[in-house]
């Protein structure tokens, strides 16, 4: 199952209401066969602009990030369910990409540029892209009328 990250902005409410809204969100993920990996509280703050959601205007919100694994077919169901929740102002689900594995050693980095593998590859590419010198069928490798 691929990993996803859910960013939530919940309306400003008391702590018990906030807990119940998070429980509903987590239970809906678990009911769809998902596995919650991490839940982060990013704090309460003013929204960047006023947001009208479910007929109410919101100026402050509480931000949360939830990392979870779920089947790709269930993501649209989750988005629809979160859209109907009156406590959620904004919700975005992003697929998390695996970080690219890059192996680097200090010895390679300390070599002079001409001896590094990546620099040698760039030099080879540049040699392949060089244009041949212009020849006027004169047998010369330069243009004789140029100063």
From TrEMBL:
This protein's encoding gene: 101899284
GO molecular function terms attached to this record: small ribosomal subunit rRNA binding; structural constituent of ribosome
InterPro entries from the xrefs? Ribosomal_bS6 (IPR000529), Ribosomal_bS6_sf (IPR035980), Ribosomal_S6_plastid/chlpt (IPR020814), Transl_elong_EF1B/ribsomal_bS6 (IPR014717)
User: Among the entry's GO cellular component annotations, what is one?
Assistant: mitochondrial small ribosomal subunit
Q: Which Pfam families match?
A: Ribosomal_S6
Q: Which organism is it from?
A: Musca domestica (House fly)
Name of protein: Small ribosomal subunit protein bS6m
Which family does this protein fall into?
Belongs to the bacterial ribosomal protein bS6 family.
Its taxonomic placement starts with: Eukaryota, Metazoa, Ecdysozoa, Arthropoda, Hexapoda
PANTHER family named in the record:
MITOCHONDRIAL 28S RIBOSOMAL PROTEIN S6, SMALL RIBOSOMAL SUBUNIT PROTEIN BS6M
- Any GO BP annotation: translation
